[in-house]
Design a protein that fits this description.
The chain has about 650 residues and is an alpha/beta fold. The protein folds into 3 domains: about 250 residues, 3-Layer(aba) Sandwich (Rossmann fold), CATH 3.40.50; about 160 residues, Rossmann fold (3-Layer(aba) Sandwich), CATH 3.40.50; about 130 residues, Rossmann fold (3-Layer(aba) Sandwich). It has 24 helices and 18 strands. The strands form 4 sheets. The protein has a 5-stranded parallel sheet, sandwiched between helices. Helix 5 packs parallel to helix 6. The longest helix has 19 residues. It starts with about 25 loop residues before the first helix and ends in a 13-residue tail after the last helix.
């Protein structure tokens, strides 16, 4: 007999309070609907799919059991927050994910009261959660604080610093370790679930506390010995010894897709725990969507795709991506020089080092989400004569700035820093934008700072870095495809601190640092047509500056404009500093620096971001006319 169709449940859930009216037995159906809604939404917007698919049941269980937003729920990184957004009053906007003026791809405090802490970079959730738990205690405002952190994020030292601090404070904090590195296997079956329920219940926790109080009368030494013996014995069964040593009560592992296992454990912890607890949950990334389950990356990050087939609608590039150009060039240099080694922090494919790894597996190192360690690890190799390339995204290199200063720059060690995702990154928004690397690197003594203006220049800079042994050197390049220039067979060695003149003029000088050069060339054509003879220069170096070239530009032109896809304090500031000390601003030179605006710019299409920032062709032309105090003439800005 045909079963009648089930009444949809997701339409009844406008916010987490509505889960009170849904029986536990009906939650698996709600999970299926939630998973289907997320797949459909991301198929239209692109984004991080696999992580969210893996935490559908976990997210439902947390919102069912805890009283959010009064109870604080923090998602580490935020890649897995899409189901959370759907359940917390944002379902009607979920198809605006990562779009201009739409929902952020991560949790964001300004977006919802259900996002108590913004997430983007990894391994911050336990620290933030501990701060909230302590604030709750100080202000006598009892609440639960739940931090959901993935097994990958546990490779970062900050997570362990937070665990250690939380254990010593005996804070009321619930950490859920979402372990999706392997499929659900025998240890997470019925017996494991039973033990987890037992270990998280009132009786066990009460006996544990009573035992500690009783043994306290016998002295600290005996108390410590008995407690450690009990916890070590339990740790051999559950795998929780390390967390117990840090002061956490460990529960699990349990099946993160089985609501019959999750719900009673979460309720027991909610009702009976007082100190820090860690719940080890096993999940499957990409769960419930066959194309994601079958993909090697579990559909971690996807473009728009066909829901039925899973086929992604990636555009066919007209030019190779900057990342692939760097990867090919580094592989080429690595084949010539066996001292070249490569280091990445859990981003081998994102940085292109997977290609280097395939060719030279003994010389490529993925250290996990541990950028600080990556830099000092490379410094150690450089001190012994190797030539390490530490390939990181600009926004992630920020996490290792102290190591760049103290372990690399002060010791003048030749560590190479290829910096990917420099500048705007479109849909990933301000947390992943490469805004600050030129500013924070060019201020350091001994550091050479370069920026590639196109794919061929990136090849030149890769080889230049490989050959440079006098100290640390960096070169930045953006996300996405290049401009389609003719490529050399191998990169050339650039003269350190020397730029190149692309086009000569007499009135306006455009001094570009990085890939805004293409728009400078187009702007120069239109300025020439308007009677403003324009010079275009590719600076190549922010440090050391090409003093002779800048001095000539200042003396021979009425207007000098610097253009860079970086924050205030970067290349333009260094040029301004030089001009001021040389007295080159004292004789009527009109100097204008163009940089990224001094705000955190939300996600949008890259071309719209350039337009808003005034870093596109039209913005450069407007700046030139305004510097001259002239009204802009109508120009044939094709494509502007």
């Amino acid at each position: 007999m045909k079963q009648p169709p089930k009444t949809p449940l997701l339409d009844k859930v406008l916010e987490p309070d509505d889960l009170e009216h849904i029986e536990d037995a009906d939650l698996p159906q709600l999970a299926e609907e939630l998973r289907a809604e997320m797949i459909d939404a991301v198929s239209q917007t692109g984004g991080h799919l696999g992580a969210g698919l893996g935490v559908v049941e976990l997210t439902l269980a947390i919102h069912k059991v805890f009283n959010t937003p009064h109870d604080r729920l923090i998602f580490d990184v935020g890649h897995q927050c899409y189901p959370h957004k759907i359940l917390t009053g944002r379902r009607d906007r979920i198809r605006t994910l990562r779009q201009e003026e739409g929902l952020s791809g991560f949790t964001k405090r300004a977006e919802s009261e259900y996002d108590p802490f913004g997430a983007a970079h990894s391994s911050t959730s336990i620290s933030a959660g501990l701060g909230m738990a302590v604030a709750s205690e100080i202000q006598d405002d009892p609440r639960n604080v739940i931090a959901v952190i993935g097994d990958g994020s546990m490779s970062a030292g900050m997570a362990y610093e937070a665990l250690n601090n939380a254990g010593s404070l005996d804070a009321r904090l619930i950490v859920i370790l979402n372990d999706n590195d392997m499929s659900i296997a025998q240890p997470t079956g019925a017996m494991s679930a039973y033990l987890a329920r037992l270990a998280s219940g009132r009786a066990y926790l009460g006996m544990r506390d009573i035992g500690k109080k009783m043994t306290a009368y016998l002295g600290q030494t005996i108390d410590r010995a008995i407690t450690r013996a009990v916890e070590h014995a339990r740790g051999y069964v559950t795998g929780g010894t390390m967390f117990e040593e840090l002061g956490f009560y460990h529960i699990g592992p349990i099946d993160g897709h089985n609501l019959e296992h999750l719900l009673p454990v979460l309720r027991n912890v909610r009702d009976h725990s007082n100190g820090p607890v860690i719940i080890h949950v096993m999940t499957q990334k990409g769960k419930g969507y066959a194309p994601a389950e079958a993909a090697s990356d579990k559909y971690h990050g996807v473009s728009k795709f066909d829901v039925i087939t899973g086929t992604q609608s990636k555009s066919i590039p007209n030019a190779p991506s900057y990342t692939s150009v760097f990867a090919k060039s580094l592989v080429q240099e690595g084949g010539i020089d066996e001292k070249i080694v490569a280091v990445t922090a859990a981003m081998p494919s994102g940085t292109g080092l997977d290609k280097f790894l395939a060719e030279y597996p003994s010389r490529c190192f993925d250290v996990g989400i541990a950028e600080q360690h990556a830099v000092t690890f490379a410094a150690g190799m450089a001190s012994e004569g190797l030539k390490p390339f530490v390939a990181l995204y600009s926004t992630f290199l920020q996490r290792a700035y102290d190591q760049v200063v103290h372990d690399v720059a002060i010791q003048n060690l030749p560590v190479r820093f290829p910096i990917d995702r420099a500048g705007f990154v479109g849909a990933d928004g301000p947390t992943h934008a490469g805004s600050f690397d030129t500013t924070y690197l060019a201020t350091l003594p001994n550091m050479v700072v370069m920026a590639a203006s196109d794919e061929a220049e990136l090849m030149h800079m890769t080889r230049t870095a490989a050959e440079y042994d006098e100290g640390p050197i960096s070169f930045r390049f953006p996300r996405g495809e290049g401009v389609g220039v003719e490529m050399p067979d191998r990169g050339q060695i650039l003269q350190i601190g020397k730029g190149r003149v692309v086009k000569e003029g007499t009135k306006v000088a455009l001094l570009s640092f990085g890939t805004r050069l293409a728009d400078c060339v187009l702007a120069a054509e239109d300025l020439d047509a308007a009677g403003l003879s324009t010079t275009v220069v590719d600076a190549r170096f922010a440090k050391p500056l090409d003093h002779d070239l800048i001095r000539r530009l200042a003396k021979e032109h009425e207007v000098l404009i610097t253009i860079e896809e970086g924050a205030v304090g970067g290349f333009g500031s260094h040029v301004s500093h030089f001009l001021s000390h040389e007295g080159l601003l004292d004789h009527g030179l009109k100097f204008r620096p163009l940089v990224m605006p001094d705000i955190y710019m939300d996600q949008a299409k890259p071309e719209d971001m350039y337009l808003k920032a005034g870093l596109d062709r039209a913005g450069i032309i407007d700046t030139a006319f305004k510097a001259l105090g002239a009204e802009r003439k109508i120009l044939p800005l094709s494509g502007a």
